[in-house]
TrEMBL record:
Domain HTH cro/C1-type stretches: 8-46
Alphabetical list of InterPro entries matching this protein: Cro/C1-type_HTH (IPR001387), Lambda_DNA-bd_dom_sf (IPR010982)
GO molecular function list: DNA binding
Organism: Hyphomonas atlantica
Coiled-coil blocks: none
Lineage: superkingdom: Bacteria
Protein name per its UniProtKB record: HTH cro/C1-type domain-containing protein
């Protein structure tokens, strides 16, 4: 499942993390996080960067939902139980 910029912003908000906090957790730069959360989206980043951000957010307690897992059929995020 590919991630969207909105999912990244929402996941970060659920954890109450700043962009610098996410950058530190993912071992990336703050400008990289900003680009991934912008209109360009994470697809403009390398797969390794997207994986690093996903792992950091999942380790923080976020679960990414694909369209088939969401009640309304759209991609989303939630906190793990």
């Amino acid at each position: 499942m590919s991630l969207t910029a909105a999912q990244l912003r929402a996941a970060r908000a659920l954890l109450d993390w700043t962009q610098p906090k996410l950058a530190e957790a993912a071992k990336l730069s703050v400008p990289t996080i900003r680009r991934m959360e912008s209109d360009r989206g994470p697809s403009a980043s390398t797969e390794a960067n997207v994986d690093a951000v996903r792992r950091a957010l999942e380790k923080g307690g976020v679960l990414f939902l694909g369209p088939q897992e969401s009640a309304d059929g759209g991609a989303g995020v939630r906190l793990k139980d």
